[in-house]
Design goal:
Elements lengths: L3 E6 L3 E7 L7 E7 L7 H4 L6 E3 L6 E3 L6 H22 L5 E6 L1 H10 L2 H4 L2 E5 L8 H7 L5
Length: 145
């Protein structure tokens, strides 16, 4: 079974690091981006909203969305990250998991995790460290992982 995986993510980018021993440096495992992250909200929802009939009467109106396109994109990317982590857990690629993300995305990511994967979660850090180097990220982690 692998060591500790440290997942550093934002709503547009995810970096996964591995730490094999307590004092060992973080080693890159994987990195991937959300391909729709650079799209503007108008480019994500370029179609007009659907139309529906009123429940009483003959009127028609547009159906609105309760979640804005940018937030919906973040939810989708969090699910993709969570699915990758679930598959890696099934292959025993890590024994413990640390999540580092801004607080809002951290909540989305936590919500998307399978209960078995969530049980390997050892720490959560609500900070955006996605652009930091591995040494700086390690400095923000608990001393003992």
């Amino acid at each position: 079974m692998g060591g500790v995986w440290v997942v550093v993510a934002t709503s547009a980018r995810c970096r996964i690091f591995s730490q094999k021993a307590h004092a060992a440096p973080l080693e890159p495992v994987s990195e991937f981006d959300d391909p729709t992250a650079r799209l503007k909200p108008g480019e994500i929802n370029s179609d007009r909203p659907g139309r529906t009939f009123d429940s009483n009467g003959k009127g028609r109106h547009a159906m609105g969305s309760t979640v804005n396109p940018v937030e919906q994109r973040s939810i989708r990317f969090a699910k993709q990250v969570a699915e990758r982590l679930d598959r890696a857990r099934q292959r025993n690629r890590f024994s413990r998991l640390v999540l580092v993300a801004d607080p809002k995305f951290l909540g989305l990511l936590r919500h998307g995790l399978n209960p078995a994967t969530r049980s390997r979660l050892t720490a959560e850090i609500g900070k955006n460290l996605a652009t930091e180097d591995p040494g700086t990220i390690r400095d923000h982690l608990p001393y003992r992982l």
